[in-house]
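In this supplementary section we document a worked example of the pipeline. Step one takes a protein sequence of length 235 as its only input; no multiple sequence alignment statistics are reported here. Step two produces a three-dimensional model, which step three serialises into structure tokens for compact storage. The input and output of this example are shown verbatim.
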Amino acid sequence: MKKIVALVLVLMMAVCSAAALAEEEKVMTHEEYIAAELDTAVTLETYVQATQAWWDGKITVYAQSPDGAYFIYNMTCAEEDAAKLVPGTKIRVKGYKAEWAGEVELAEGATFEIIEGEPFIAEAEDVTAKLGTDELINCQNELVAFKGMTVEAYDETGAAFAYKNAENKTDDLYFKVSKDGATYDFCVEYYLCNESTDVYKAVENLKVGDVIDLEGFLYWYNGANPHITKVTPAQ
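The serialised model returned by step three reads:
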């Protein structure tokens, strides 16, 4: 009898383990991902929109699907695979949901595989009217646009932008823009758009009072802190 009970317990444990594994590997919708608790194991299928520079076996990915977007921080990636992660590529990602300074992301160490599927490239959603509202966070990590923004002085020097490190002019760029009397902090993330890119050069040439349109990924750092990828004169 004891052997039978033990066998039943082993089988029950095996069934529970299989069920837990199946639940862990279930591909989540974006809605399910947002609803999941922090530190939950998640499996996603999504599409690469952009990547930061590969470094030391890791790559950070801006990803988006028709139902929502994801920031995948320091995903495990061999150098030869980094070049395959071009915009539109469909990937299956396994990792853990995390949050840092308000930014909901897949934590460092997520793994991925490229899977078959038609490419998907997101179009920037105009979220200008959502600035300063509680609605904006619902677009977190998406490719978004801001229209008719006025460049403000970044600091007391009156400059239109600043480098993250004043002694290093190959670093993140910070700048401020306003709309309807409210001012917002934006960023050009160096590992996404370095000094060779049009957007980096455009921000370095901004002047206080310029009115501009912008596109970028709606990153969050204690509030909206978009990683800008495009700057043009306002239309």
